[in-house]
Amino acid sequence: xxxxxxxxxxxxxxxxxxxxxxxxxxxxxxxxxxxxxxxxxxxxxxxxxxxxxxxxxxxxxxxxxxxxxxxxxxxxxxxxxxxxxxxxxxxxxxxxxxxxxxxxxxxxxxxxxxxxxxxxxxxxxxxxxxxxxxxxxxxxxxxxxxxxxxxxxxxxxxxxxxxxxxxxxxxxxxxxxxxxxxxxxxxxxxxxxxxxxxxxxxxxxxxxxxxxxxxxxxxxxxxxxxxxxxxxxxxxxxxxxxxxxxxxxxxxxxxxxxxxxxxxxxx
Length: 267
Hints:
The protein has helices at 2-16, 29-35, 39-58, 63-78, 81-93, 99-107, 113-136, 140-146, 148-163, 171-175, 181-201, 206-235, 240-265. It is an all-alpha fold. Helix 3 runs antiparallel to helix 8.
């Protein structure tokens, strides 16, 4: 059991990030199903590395530059994997074509006009949110909260994988065919545990810490849910690209939620 869990953790980190782990594990359906339990942990790793970089860039006292460097580092941690899914999804679902043609467009490695526009808008929103954080706060609590967004956006991916059917035979849906609701539920428990641990380190009152976690998690889940419903109707299911797209949207929602919290509480 322990070996399966560790294999799942390694698979999750290798699948969702570019953080080097010099370990080889089988990427078979049973291992990938167990890996869902560790999706929030992979998100935490990305979030902590991003938060740590943000705290360092804060020392530059140049909000625009700090935001640009943070965003670049954030993208590098995933190798642009989810961003690519966001752009491919935009190319397909915004093409106005029939369902089968949408799926074919999404498989094309080339990025079209809608993908470029969607990618630009997403990065603009994240950049603007980061600039807001760098301009309005110097509290370490903010950067610790930043680590929670990737945790809950990765959890939402586990829920989407097990709730919605695959839009095409093979692909990412087939890879996770052994996954079930118990894996998504386990991932939720993991995300809550991680969030409690992070909240305990926040230099906020207990009530504020609870509210912060609830708002960030709620924003990520709500945006992910709305996007999953819309994409599911458009495509008849979900694909690997749409999982990445939902992750990006949920991360952005979490980031905006942090901005709102910082503005409300003057952190």
